[in-house]
Structure formats: C-alpha cells, structure tokens
Model the fold of this input.
Amino acid sequence: MLPFDDRDGKIWFDGKLLEWREAQIHVLSHGLHYASCVFEGERVYNGKVFKLNEHSERLVNSGRVLDFEIPYTVEEINQATLATVEAMGIKDGYVRPLAWRGSEMMGVTAQHNKIHLAIAAWEWPAYFSPEARLQGIRMDWAQYRRPDPATAPTSSKAAGLYMICTLSKHEAERKGYNDALMLDYRGQVAEATGANIFFVIDGQLHTPIADCFLNGITRRTVIDLAQKRGIDVIERVIMPEELCKATECFITGTAVEVTPVREIGEHHFTVGEITRQLVDDYDILVQRGHKEAASAKHSAA
Done:
C-alpha cells in the first residue's frame, strides 16, 4: 500500500485544491498536540457520496462541541467534498474531511487559533475482505472502555477519542482477531473500535443505547431498514454476560458497512437470516446511489 503522504492527486485544503504532497501542516499545530481536531469518514459509491449532508452536518457539530466554528457552511463543505471526489476520479472509495486548530497559539488554551479544513479522498472498495463479510469477523474484548460523557466530548467525532480504539484494535490484531468489543465506563457493552454493534436475540434486534459513543449514521440507517422489514429494534443496556443469549451479531459503520461477527471472545454466532437480510438491504440501498449517479451522468451526457 502506498503511504498516505506520498501519492498523486488533489486534496482540498482551506478553500483550494492542492497537489496531494503539498497539503501539509506545521509540526506545531494545536490539533496535533492537543487533539483539537474533528473528522468524518464517508463512502463513495460510483462517484456519489452516501448521506453526504448528514456527514457534513455532523462535522460542523463536532467542531462546535470542541468549541470551534468551522469557517464553512454545510453546503460549502458538501460542494468541496464533491469537487475533491471529482478531482480524484473516485468511483468507489472513501472521503476524509478533517478540521483542526492551527499554530497561532501553542498551549492548552488556543482561543484565537485559525480553524483549518481539509478533505481527502481515495479508492477503497472494502474495509474487511469478502471472506470476512461472508463468514463473520472475530473480535476480542478491548482493554479500554468508552469514557463517561462527563469526562470527554463523546457526542463529537473527535480525533482524541480514537486513541483507545487504536490501542485496542492493535492488541486484538496481535492476537489474531479482526477487531475488539469495547465496554463503556459502566461495564456495559458499547461498540467496536470504529463501529456500532447489534445482536439478534429471540428474533429481535438489540443494540446498546448510544449515550457515551456516536449514534452512527450507518447505525441509524440499519435501524430504519430493520424496522421497514418489521424487525423489532430494541435500544437498551446490554451487559457482557448477555452475549450468550445472542444467535447473531453484526457491526455497522461507514467503513465496515454491515459486517457479520462470528466470534467475540468466548461467544460464537452464526451469520443468520436477519444479518444476511440487512447486509443485502444495505447493499441495495447504496447500490441505488450507484444507479442514481449513473442515471444523472447519462442524462447530463
């Protein structure tokens, strides 16, 4: 894989499309030292960004949670994203918008630092291999826990909140697992290191209440798809010992889409009917975006 700092292409940076290698910041940036940085992850299907407006809105709101205002409107961020995808010629890929405090002040306080915005996009067809999506991934238990909202800005997609995710996923991968399941500060089931989680128990879909981690855009999409199928969706407190009651399990997220889980520690699950149905429904939903984008291009031609 090519390193991300040495590629051809364009990155949108503070209002301009720059050459990829020229999109740089100074080492003394507040976002690097104090994690005053928010970001998004977005999927591109046949040149169309799935739920772009929702992602841009969340980016702006995350900045506000971290006490800064991104100097662009949601519509301007949408247009910059589309311009980046077009400049890169992305058909199926990933978009990473990023906003951070700059270098004017270096210390805990940074009231007057400039807020920067960059948007990068690259080809990225799948997070897990096709085999993993068919068979289900293996997960370990994470060492670290999702923090109390009174101790961290958990309603934002802030870079600093992902440090414990990286540590947990690295440890799981060293043990031969694909990912790790994180509990929250109360010992309740929370989420995977970068995705929300669902369990099938007695034909119903159960998922933890998103009160100390992000209520993901894909999470909400899958809940809607399940309810349209007449599947009961129950958002509730789930304790680790309850996993033995579940017959199916899957994770959801922009990157992972809908990915079955076959194992969490000592617990095993099947890739059953409800999981397969929601995998298919989600794929059809994003493929609809393929068709709409293709139709629009054909009409324009």
The mean pLDDT is 93. Residues 60 and 159 are 14 Å apart (CA to CA). The first strand starts at residue 10 and ends at 13.
